[in-house]
Amino acid sequence: MVTILIAAAGTGGHVFPGLAVGEALVALGVAQDNVVFIGGRRLEAEVYPAAGFPFIPLELAGLKRRMALSNLALPAVVRRAARAVARILDERSVASVLGLGGYAGRAFRPSTAPPSVQSPSNTSASPMTSRWLA
């Protein structure tokens, strides 16, 4: 059983490409139950389950671009999400990870995950996420 984890969350610009990849994997013969999506509780929490894919919600938060007290909690949120993803990787014997953007991509690092691909994104958070994952 090959499990592929897809982290594509936030806006339709991340979610729908993720869904297209999931559907393509199923068309290539990967069982739909083996294409697992992770993300927050936004659009992705509705789209992936409605399409029949397993979805695991994570606690995610975005970095505010201005001085905000909520930014102080971000390191703890990222650590909790990273631990949750580590459990998912272990429990589901994930063979590969695909990050297609949004803050869900911060929850894993290719150095600690199975073979991983992080696709560039068109969001302002992408450069920070890309540096974090480097």
Brief sketch in words of this structure:
By secondary structure, this protein is an alpha/beta fold. The protein is 37% helix and 19% strand.
Could you walk me through the main structural features you see in this protein, from its secondary elements to its overall organization?
There is one protein chain. By secondary structure, the protein is α/β, with parallel strands linked by helices. The chain has 4 helices and 5 strands, in the order βαβαβαββα. Strands 3-2-1-4-5 form a 5-stranded parallel beta sheet, with helices on both faces. Helix 1 (12-27) links the parallel strand 1 and strand 2 (35-39). The longest helix has 18 residues, at 74-91. The protein starts with a strand and ends with a helix. 31% of the residues are buried.
Spans of at least 5 consecutive residues with low confidence: 122-126
Strand content: 15-25%
Rg from C-alpha positions? 14 Å
Quick one: biggest sheet? 5 strands, parallel
Based on secondary structure, the structural category is alpha/beta
Estimated helix fraction: 25-40%
Helix count from the secondary structure assignment: 4
